[in-house]
Amino acid sequence: NRDVPTYAIRRSPTGNWGFCLESCWGLFASFELPNNNQRHDHEDDVEGALLQDSTLSITSSVQWREAMLYNYGAVTLPEGRVAAAHYRRLWGDH
Fold this sequence. Notes:
Elements: E1 8-11, E2 19-22, E3 27-29, H1 46-49, H2 60-71, H3 83-91
């Protein structure tokens, strides 16, 4: 078993009292997600907004260290407030 980039949980922005489980690589929901093949053009289309990366909280720019370490084969990933410091100590990122 290997750690994957952290999933963050939040209430659904659609107002349906569901929740979203989100990481830089995936989005899971406690409700049916909109079909990617349907057009969602309306600015007030909240469900369609879930298909846009710009509306997601967790992006690869937030979790790039975790994704890179996973891709390099790390079994466990640093977590918590010291994760960035731990990464810099190991990899020399400033």
